[in-house]
Amino acid sequence: MGLLASKKIQLQIALCIWILTSSCTKDSAMTTPEIPEPGEDIVFLPLVIHVVHSGEPLGTGPNLSLERIVRQIEILNEDFRRKEGSRGHNNDPDGGDTKIEFVLAKQTPEGKPTNGVNRIDTTQIKTRELGYNQTHYAQYAYWNPSQYINIWTTPLPESTECMVLGNATGPKTDLPGTEHLALPGPNDAEGILVNWIHFGESNIDCHARYGRTLTHEMGHYLGLLHTWGAKDCALNDYCDDTPAVDREVFGREAFKGCNGETVMIGNYMNYTHDDVMNIFTHDQIARMHYVLKNHTGRNALTRSIALKNP
């Protein structure tokens, strides 16, 4: 073998070694994590909005317009990200950015393109009466809850305005207080119900008209309790930075809770008015991150196929 050929082979070997070591270095600038780390990275979670209606024209009554749905998701993200210039912003030192964002699903379970809105005409489907719960509405549509957060807008009569807002199932974890969430049984569906009247912004004559019902229920879906928990001053919501209170918090005026401490009237996990809600605390955020890390189904959402185009 000639000297020139030998040097050429040595150069090729050196180049291969450089490529291998460069591409496998853990701290390489070219390496990005494929799995987001809740609490460190921004975590994206996919939503499917099942718009349940009774044959009304698009944009009429329970058959909500796409614009109203999109605006509701914007509000949800403003609240969870503490977006400056929005109703979800606050300057409270106990408040924070959850680093959780919500995205309308980009593909169906069958791999077809979608805008994340699934409209169901109840007049075309026969179901059993199972009560006002997720399992009943899952008869109309239910996408894999490990890949989608199922949200049903329910076609309740207008007489339910300001009376029925929403509810959510919670995740079963080893966090204290989990037993106070609405945990689904083995054969139950999971997800969020929101009365269509309280989905998104509107001009209804009710305190719940700025889209905070979904923010509140999403808090439950990710493991948060009401600020009063089980109405015990010592063991309320297991978040030390939410002032302890042993009764439900309504309205828009703060009052003294446990130990004479003023309640956090603006917390999303109260029953307070939409126009004063604007804060998740650091401990509440940590609790949601714990759920996203440790609950199998919630963690799977962070890697869902629904976040990607088909």
Summarize the structure.
The chain is of the alpha/beta class. Helix content is 23%, strand content 12%.
Characterization of the model:
The chain is built from six helices and eight strands, in the order αβαββαβββαββαα. It is of the alpha/beta class. Helix 2 links the parallel strand 1 and strand 2. The chain is globular, with a radius of gyration of 24 Å. The chain starts with a helix and ends in a 9-residue tail after the last helix.
Largest sheet, strands/sense/barrel: 6 strands, mixed
Class per helix and strand makeup: alpha/beta
CATH topology of the domain at 34-219 and 283-307: the name is: Collagenase (Catalytic Domain)
* CATH class type of the domain at 34-219 and 283-307: Alpha Beta
The number of distinct β-strands equals 8
